[in-house]
């Protein structure tokens, strides 16, 4: 049984930083496309960052230069470092995984495994 468990969400002031973690069981991250998504109230879910099977990364424009996706394969853990946070970053953040692939395959793929979400709230 695959399980993804996020942690690290919190309430911070604008300009602050957070690190989100997502521990996986039942899959081995190193073989998968992995990603972080977010969904704000009243908005559609959006992809934030993607890491493919060789750890090449892609970011949505609004977070480029501020967020960093990384993985620790030994710990089977995915991270999202959030710096210079803005109120518009407020959302529920979800980690996700799908089959192995590279580049645009991981960006455009349907993700099959999801965590339960962790809330990030940024106040001005």
Structure description:
The protein is mainly beta. Helices cover 4% and strands 48% of the residues. It has 1 helix and 11 strands, in the order βββββββββαββ. The strands form 2 sheets. Strands 2, 4, 5, 6, 9, 10 and 11 form a 7-stranded mixed sheet that branches. It has a 4-stranded antiparallel sheet with strand order 1-3-8-7, with no helix packed on it. The chain is globular. It starts with a strand and ends with a strand. The model has no long low-confidence stretch (mean pLDDT 96).
Task: Offer a quick outline of the entry.
By secondary structure, this protein is mainly beta.
Taken from the alpha-carbon principal axes, the silhouette is globular
End-to-end CA span: 41 Å
Q: Spans of 5+ residues with little confidence (pLDDT < 50)?
A: none
N-to-C SSE series?
A: EEEEEEEEEHEE
Mean pLDDT: 96
In terms of DSSP E residues, the strand content is over 45%
- Total beta strand runs: 11
Helix share, percent: under 10%
Q: How many helix segments? A: 1
Helix/strand/pairing class, anyone? mainly beta
The biggest beta sheet is recorded as:
7 strands, mixed
Q: Which value, in Å, is the CA radius of gyration?
A: 13 Å
